[in-house]
Amino acid sequence: MDKLKEKNILDTPISEIKFACMDTETTGLSPATGGRLCEIAVLISQNNNRLLSYETLINPGKIIGAEVTKIHGITNEMVANEPMFFQTAPKLLSVLENCVIVCHNADFDIQFIAGELGECGFRLGSKVILDTLKYARTHGEFSKNRLGVIAQELGHDSKGWHRALADAKMTEVVLYHFLKKFQENGAKTLGDIQKLQTRKKLEQF
Questions:
Q1: Which of 199, 135, 200 is nearest to 171 (CA)?
Q2: Which residues are paired to 41 by β-bridges?
Q3: Phi-psi category of 91—alpha, beta or left, where left has phi over 0 and alpha has psi -120 to 50?
Q4: CA angle (45, 47, 50) in 5-degree steps
Q5: Cβ-Cβ contacts under 8 Å for 164 (sequence gap 6 or more)
Q6: pLDDT class of 205 with cuts at 50, 70, 90
Q7: What span, in angstroms and rounded, lies between the C-alpha atoms of 33 and 156?
Q8: What's the helix, strand, coil split of the chain in %, to 5?
Q9: Which residue among 2, 25, 124, 149 is least enclosed by CB atoms within 10 Å?
Q10: Strands 19-26, 37-46: parallel, antiparallel or unpaired by DSSP?
Q11: How far is CA 23 from CA 7, 144, 163, 166, 172, in A?
């Protein structure tokens, strides 16, 4: 039986976890004020080995404002002939199946993903979601905790920052930076690394 389908999911050894580093780009700051997804990217990896890459532009069904395009570079012309979210949802859920989702500032991305899935009659099945922003705030010593800044300070190219695939790649780099640190201090399971999102002191497990 797949470990991530068992009751005690938090007992899953880190080496057996498939991580889905995910990023989204949107038309606004919140679905509550009408924001919609216009791009999503997911990188699946295990033991720092890339298993799968998925990315797609999404037609949000509404105009992308010029001020938003200035941030991520996605124009109305770019998404005009792209699928709408309900057309991509089954593929996205298939990609995420049996994975632990990882985002940088997960509250932002997950509210959009969960909201869009809900409108299609689907649910986000992941029981545990990890946030590299929380790791950076709790255990990092970076000049700023913005994703591109952290990636640069870890020696990773931040080119393409604010596009979904580039941001997913940087999130993956940040995740494995912290996993190495946590495992060196005795973290062994998903439960261990979940707790370390808020636990400020690294301790032997």
A1: 135
A2: 23, 55
A3: alpha
A4: 30
A5: 23, 24, 25, 39, 40, 41, 55
A6: low
A7: 34
A8: 45, 20, 35
A9: 2
A10: antiparallel
A11: 28, 19, 8, 9, 10
- The first and second tokens of residue 98, run together, are 């049996």
**Among 184, 21, 167, CA closest to 101:** 21
Domains in the chain: boundaries: 16-195
pLDDT in tens, 93-141: 999 999 999 999 999 999 999 999 999 999 998 779 999 999 999 999 9
For 16-195, which CATH class? alpha beta
Task: Write the DSSP assignment of 112-134 as a string of letters.
Answer: HHHHHHHHTT-----S-EEEHHH
Amino acid at 161: W
Gap between the Cα atoms of 70 and 178, Å rounded: 31
How is residue 182 written in tokens?
A: 């946590």
Does the pTM surpass 0.85? The reply is yes
* Rounded CA separation 38/185 (Å): 39
Identity at 100, one-letter amino acid code: V
- Between CA 151 and CA 186 the distance in angstroms is 25
